[in-house]
Amino acid sequence: MEKPENKQVVIACDVLRRQLEALGETPYKFEYLDAGLHRTPPVLTETLQEMINSQSDADLIILGYGLCSRSIVGLRAQSHQIMVVPKIDDCIGLTMGCRSSYYKEFAQNPGSYYFTKGWIEASEDPLKEYHKVVAKYDQETADWTIKEILKHYKRAVLIKHIQEVDEPSEAYVKHFAEFFNLKYEEMYGTLDYVKKLLFGPWDDDFVVVEGGKEITDEMFQNRHEFEISESL
Amino acid sequence: MSNLLAEIQEAVINGQAPKVKELTQAGLDAGQTPQEILNEGLIPAMKIVGEKFQKGEFYISEMMISARAMYAGLNLVKPLLIAQKTESKGKAIVGTVQGDLHDIGKNLVCMMMEGGGYEVIDLGVNITSEQFLEAVKEHSPDFVMMSALLTTTMESMAKVIQVLADNGLRDKVLIGIGGAPVTQRFADSIGADFYASDAGEAVSKANSLLLER
CA within 20 to 30 Å of A161's CA: A118, A221, B73, B139, which one? Predict the structure, then answer.
């Protein structure tokens, strides 16, 4: 007997793999894209659109992305497809669980470098870049570069999506903090947002686009409610 | 292009500050004009670096190292240009908007604008709309250039434009914006005069807008 076609697809950043996998069995097909794409927003937009276009059989496309430097603005699925996107800025907010906590956290502690387990595993970060610069140039250059990059940072924060000890992640972020002379902190995020992304309900925390319409900035507009200046 | 200018370009792209300095000096000693070294060596090299960054071929650190190398040459050329009393093309105030502490792109814009013959007033990072307003009042610039690296802070750009408008200063300046989440469409939506995808483009767009004015 032929396996029924998977008509629901999740296209997500590699950084979210851990969180999505933690949800267990799902009826979805998963397509993960390289986390490094976030560095080049126009390339990310293009790659995402190509991936969406290649999923003609699907009737539901779920994006495991936030605004991510507005890379998702302008994306369009086909007219028979529904596309769902979390109404959030990036994977930090997604892991924290809601946009307002992210904005509050951001306003209170702007100089923070956030990590999740997925970010550590899938993404570049200044420590990895430091070692690359040492290898390609020299140590003095690497010291200067990363000092410049991190000069406004004060904290390295590990956001855990579940309440458990995660020694490798803790060790990595502690090492990162110590190496760059930052304060190490931990906070608990949640899996609730990604859970809702996959299983609904798609309430105000989501953008649901139907009929092949384009994703626009306006769809994300309730971010104005959390003006940074108000919470400063 | 002379061999030397090609070598300067290569050294900037490779991020070799001492070599750029040496080559720039050699060029000047051999009678090359500071304008030639700047416009055919240092600046085009940084444009190539900017393109490489946008394609993901260069990391932010590599771009910074190239910028540092370019600066090593710029430092030799600048006093000569000043001595020639080359008139500044115009004045720009540049800053990263409120809530945002990212300054690498903004610093590149400052450097390229300076290299491009503009007087630059760098306001720094986390600049409120009131600070932009005060700076416009104080310096009467031709350009106000804003940078934001985050979707959480880019809305502040609209606020700056609004505050300038409220104070009757919006039409006295040309407003340019940039940063990873910023696009031409966003620039249009908030009523900025131009958008630049990198520091090199910021200069070329500033140049053409000045001509139109």
Answer: A221
Q: Per the CB < 8 Å rule, is B99 touching A129?
A: no
Q: CA dist B56 to A109, B51, B166, Å?
A: 29, 9, 40
Best A39, A220, A224 member to test B by mutation, with max B CBs in 10 Å, is A39
pLDDT in tens, A140-187: 999 999 999 999 999 999 999 877 788 999 999 999 999 999 999 999
Across residues A127-133, what is the average pLDDT? 95
Q: What's the predicted TM-score (pTM) here?
A: 0.87
ipTM above 0.85, yes or no: no
Q: Based on C-alpha coordinates, what's the Rg of chain B?
A: 17
Q: Which domains are assigned to chain B?
A: 3-83 (1.10.1240.10), 91-212 (3.40.50.280)
Q: What local confidence, expressed as pLDDT, does residue A5 receive?
A: 61
| Residues A183, A196 within the same domain | no
Per the structure, the count of domains in chain A is 2
**Does A89 contact chain B (CB < 8 Å)?**
yes
* Residue from A132, A127, A131, A142 nearest A173 by CA: A127
User: HEC states along B34-61?
Assistant: HHHHHHHHHHHHHHHHHHHHHCCCCCHH
Question: How does DSSP classify residue A19?
Answer: H
Distance CA B154, CA B142 (A): 22
Domain with A214 in it: 8-90+192-231
Q: Among candidates B6, B18, B107, which has minimal Cα distance to B63?
A: B107
| Orientation of helix A126-136 relative to helix B60-83, angle to 10° | 70
